[in-house]
């Protein structure tokens, strides 16, 4: 059985790669059909809202993340708490804390819940 961190990385690495490539389809593809997504704007449900959120981000935005905490909540569920740094070409980096719940669907592992909040880092 995979550990929680392995499961999270299997979903978050493609999420990161899609953001770095400014490919909102790829980013949205790691979210479950009924995923609750809360970026820094009003929440949405499902991959279309994720697509619209990341499609509106400026080209050149990239993200680096660190898993701070991870838990395997069951055979088909993992929880993660992340520190994420979103870098931009023409403005300061945005530091966020992100909580994710990842579930195993009939297809693969997907993000079922994503909630971001501003973080203060030294």
TrEMBL record:
InterPro entries given in the database record: NTF2-like_dom_sf
Domain of life (superkingdom): Bacteria
Protein's name according to its UniProt entry: SnoaL-like domain-containing protein
Higher taxonomy: Bacteria, Bacillati, Actinomycetota, Actinomycetes, Mycobacteriales
């Amino acid at each position: 059985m995979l550990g929680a961190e392995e499961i999270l990385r299997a979903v978050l690495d493609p999420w990161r790669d899609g953001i770095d490539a400014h490919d909102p389809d790829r980013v949205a593809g790691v979210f479950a059909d009924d995923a609750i997504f809360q970026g820094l704007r009003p929440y949405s449900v499902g991959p279309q809202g994720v697509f619209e959120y990341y499609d509106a981000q400026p080209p050149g935005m990239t993200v680096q993340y660190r898993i701070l905490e991870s838990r395997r909540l069951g055979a088909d569920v993992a929880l993660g708490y992340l520190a994420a740094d979103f870098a931009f070409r023409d403005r300061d980096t945005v530091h966020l804390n992100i909580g994710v719940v990842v579930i195993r669907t009939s297809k693969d592992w997907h993000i079922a819940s994503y909630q971001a909040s501003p973080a203060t880092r030294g």
